[in-house]
TrEMBL record:
This is PLDc_N domain-containing protein. The lineage of its organism: Bacteria, Bacillati, Actinomycetota, Actinomycetes, Pseudonocardiales. It comes from Amycolatopsis echigonensis. It comes from the Bacteria. Pfam families: PLDc_N. GO terms for cellular component: plasma membrane.
Length: 80
């Protein structure tokens, strides 16, 4: 009985580890795709859009984070 319980716990920990790693991989990918959609839909000119897309591609985590924290606000403010 104890061996079966230990196997079940071990399998549960393996599943949790795989799920955690999958989330760590999926989060930057979703963030990158969301930033691309947001940049391309923004009112910025073609040159600035290109710059943000290249920056997001070269820095896959930092680029999208900076877009959502800084770039998106400045693009919306330029409309006003």
């Amino acid at each position: 009985m104890t061996a079966a319980l230990a196997d079940t716990v071990h399998e549960g920990l393996q599943f949790a580890a795989v799920a955690g790693i999958a989330l760590l991989v999926a989060f930057p990918v979703v963030l990158f795709i969301g930033a691309l959609v947001s940049v391309l839909g923004s009112p910025l000119g073609a040159g600035m859009k290109f710059m943000w897309v290249v920056f997001a591609f070269c820095a896959p985590f930092l680029g999208p984070m900076l877009w959502f924290l800084v770039g998106k606000r400045s693009a919306e403010a330029s409309l006003r």
